[in-house]
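Anyone able to model this chain together with adenosine-5'-triphosphate?
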Amino acid sequence: MSRYNALCSSTSSIDLNNLSPIQVFIRIKPNNSNDPYEIIPFEYSSKNTILTLPNSRSLSFDNVFPPQSTQHDIFESIIPLLHLPLYGYNSTIFAYGQTNSGKTYTMLGPDGKLCLADDLMGIIPRTSRYLFAAIHKLTSSSPSIQYQVRVSYLEVYNGHVYDLVRKNDNKSNNKSHSLSIRADNQGNINVTDAVEIPVHNSFELENILMLGNQRRATAFTYMNSSSSRSHALLIIWIERRERSTSSLSREYTSYLGRLNLIDLAGSEDISRSKAEGDRFREAVTINTELLQLRRVLDALSTSSSYIPYRDSTLTRLLQSSLSTTQSITILISHISSLNIDLSETLSTLKYSQIAKCVQRTSIPVQKLCKNIDTSDVMFGDYNDPVQCFYRRTVYIHTPSYGKIFARLAGYRYDEQQKCILLIHGSGPENSSMYWNDFVRRLLLATSSSSSLSPYYFVAIDCPGYGRSDGNKQTIRSYPGAFIQEIIDCISPTTHKVYCLIGSSQGAAAVFNALIDKPAISSFIAVQDPVSHDPQRFVCIKQPALLMYDIDDDGHPVSVGRLVKKYIPNNHYYEFASSKQRNWLEHNAHLKLLQLFNEYDTNSNTKNVSSLQLTASSKIPLPSLLACESVAGGIISYLSSYNREPLYENSKKELESILSAYENQSVQNDDLFVEKVEAEKIEDDESKAQRLTTELAQTQCDLCNQHISSSHISKSLRLPDCRHLLCYSCCCETIKLNSYECPVVGCATKLNIPSSQLSVYSLPFSSDNENHVIIQFGNSCKSTSSSSQRYEYTAYVKCKTKNAIDSVSFDINPEYPKSAIRVSKAPYELVRIMNSEFTCDFIIQWSKAWNWPKLRITYYVQNKQDSFTRNLLVRVLNQGNTMVKSQKPRQEVVYNWADRDRTKPNINYVVLSYD
Ligand SMILES: Nc1ncnc2c1ncn2[C@@H]1O[C@H](COP(=O)(O)OP(=O)(O)OP(=O)(O)O)[C@@H](O)[C@H]1O
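re: yes, here you go
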C-alpha cells in the first residue's frame, strides 16, 4: 500500500482541458524466444509517441510502449485518469487488439489470470490499490469527506451481458440469465439488475475480481491457450460525499464517478485459431462486435451526426465510455511484434489512429446531487470529533412488540446512570436517525477529553418504522404500554428513565404514556406538538421542556400553546424557523441541560468520578443487556464501519473481539454489508410437487375469482413468487409495475414495455363494475428567489362529473382532527412550507353512490414541476342499486406515500364492501 500512497500525491489536480477524449496508447508484446517467426523492425521516437513502421510510415500516438516496457510503466501512464472518478467524472481504460496480443496481461496479469505479484500485476489490481490509497489520503486530510465504492463485474458473451458476480449467472449453468441494457433519462447507459457490491478496501475488490475471473468465459485456441471468449467490464462506482464542516446536518453533496476497466476479447483470424463449434460461433460474434466498435470509432472521428452505438451489445454497453461528452478514455491497443501477425497489427493500428482523431465536443461534467443520508444507520459516527461516544446499534427484544431497533450512545455502566429515551415522529422515513445530531450535541456538551458524559441515550425505531418489527399504529394506540415495555427492558430494576423525549407523533406518545404510567420518567422534552385533548395533560407533573416552531403548519403552534396551558411544570419556547433557521440545533440541547440543572442538583456531577478518563485508559465496550442483541453486525457495533484500517491493521483486534462475543447470541443482521441471498435450490421432488399443486390451481391469487378452463392457459404465473394472476382482470395489473408482485409486493422480473402502460389499459371491462379515474399530486413553486420557503399546491381531480362530494387534506394523519375539507372543485390545498410534508387525501364520493371513502396516503414533493398520479378507482361486482343497499366500509386506504418517486404513476384500487 505504501508504494501506492507515494504515487497518489496529487489527487486534487485535474485539468480536463489537457485530456483529449480518447487517448491512444500502443503496447507491443515482446516476442517469445521460442517463436519461429520473423520480427517486425518497429522504431520508436525518443519520447515514445511515434511508432515507425518498416515501410517508414510514422504514426503518432499518446504513448508507445516498446516490448521491454513493464506493467508499472503502463500503470504510471494511466494514473491521471484514475483521479477523475474520485471527483465525480467518468473515465474508461480499455484494452484492444487481436487475440494473444497481451490485453489480459495488461489488465490483469500473465497467463490470462489475475496476478497479485508486485511486478507482474496488471492495471486492474494496481488501480484497486491506488484508488483505496488515494481515498485514504483524501479522507484523512478532510474529515468531512467520505467515499463509498461499489463494484459491478460484467461480461459480454455471444452478444449477451452476464453478471460475473451474481450467483446463478453462470452461462454453463442452466439458470443463465442475461441482463438488459437501458439508458436513463440523462443518457447514461446502465445494465439493469447488475449487482453492485460495496467494497471498502482493495482486498475486498480483489476477491470480487477472483470470483468473476473464475466465471469469465475463456478457452484454448491455437493462438492463445487461455483466450478470452468474452469482453469483460469492471465498473467501479465511486461516490464522494461532502458534508458541510460547519453544520451537523444530514445533508451532503455527493458526486458519483465511474471508472470502467475493460478487457475486450481479441479479434481472431479463424483460419489460424482453428476455431470450431462453440469456439467458431464465439469468434464470429467477437469479430462482428469488434467490427461494430470500429464503425463507432469511425463515426466519432468524423463527428458524424449518427453514431451506431445500438448496432451491437458491446458498443451499446460502451456508449457512455466512448461518448466524448460523458467520459475520458484511454484505449490501449495491443500489437504483436511478429511478422506473421502483420495484417492484424496494421488493422489494429489503423483503428487506433482513427480513435486518436476523435475530437472533444464538450467537457464531461461532474455528476452532482444533494442528498439526505437515510441509509447509513451509523451516520456521523466516523465523523465524531469525540471518539468516546460509544455509539452502537442493538435490537431490544420486547415481550409484546417484537424486535425493536435502537441506537445507543454514551457509556452505560450501570442502571443508576441517567438514561434518555428518544421517540421519533411519524414521517414516512422517520426513525431513530432523527436524533443523531441532537444526541451528538448533548454528548459534546457533557463530555470532555478526560470524562465521559453522565448520560446515555437510547433512540428507538418505533414499531413498523425503520428497522423495527411491528405495526406503525402501535405507538399511537398503545404509547404507554409500549414505552413502559421498552423502559422495562433497558432499566429492568428501576423501571424508569431519566428523561423521555419525543418529536411530533413521538411527543404525543410521550404525553399519552405519562398519563398512563406517570412514574416512567423524571423529565420530559418535546418538540413539534401533535396531541388531542391537551386538557388531559394536567396530570403530568414532571418538569417539561416544550419547543415549538410557529412557522410549522404541519404542527400548529395553537396545539402547543394548549399543551403549555395544561402541563403545570412547563418550560416553554416558541421560535420562528423562517427567521431563526437553526434555533433547534443551537438551543434544544442547552435548554434541556438547563432544565436538568434546575431540578437535579447532581445533574452534571453524579457518578462522573467513575467515568474519569486518563490519557491511557481504554474503556471497554458496554456489555449487552439480556434483552439486547447486536444489530448491524459485530463490526459496526464495535467500530465505525467502512474503515479500511479495521481490515488492514486491526485483524488481531477484530479476532479478539469476535471471540469475546462468540458466546453471545448475536443476530447476524449485517445491515452494512450487502447480503448475498443464499441460493434456493429446489430438488426434483419438491419441484414436481410444486408443479402439481400449481397445475391444480384455478383461483386467481389477487382477486380470488375462479379462472375458467379456457382462460387458465392465458393466465400469468409470476416467475419468482409463483402467484397466479387471472387473465380477465388481474394479469393487467402487472403492467402497472412489472417489478412488484401485486399480491404480496415482492420483487418480480417481468419486462413490460412502457408503451403498454396507460391508465386506460387497466382492467375495468366488467358490466358489474363502477369506476372513475382520478388524478392527484402536487405542484411546488418558490415563494421568492432568496427564501427557502415554497408554495405547495396539493390536489385531487376527477373528470367524471359530480363523482366527488368532498376531499379532506390531512397534513397531520396521526392527529384525528387535523384534516382540511374542501367541498367543491378545485379540490386543492395550498400551503407555504419549508420542506416536503405528508398529506393524506380523503375522498368522500358522491352521496348518491354510497361508496366507501378513499384515503390516499401521499408525500407532497418539493419538485419544481407538477407531480401527477393516476388512479383507477373500481367498485367490483356492484351495480349501483346493490351498492346503495350495502353498508360501506369506513374507509379504504391506498398507500401511495412515495417519497422516492419509484412507484408507478398509474395504478388502481378496488373499493370493497364489508
Ligand atoms: N508484455 C508481455 N510480456 C510477457 N508476456 C506477455 C505479454 N503480453 C502477453 N503475454 C503473454 O502472452 C499470452 C497471451 O496474452 P493474453 O492472454 O493477455 O492475450 P489476449 O490479447 O488477452 O488474448 P485473447 O484476446 O485471446 O484473450 C499470455 O501467456 C501472456 O502471459
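Residues 634-676 form one domain.
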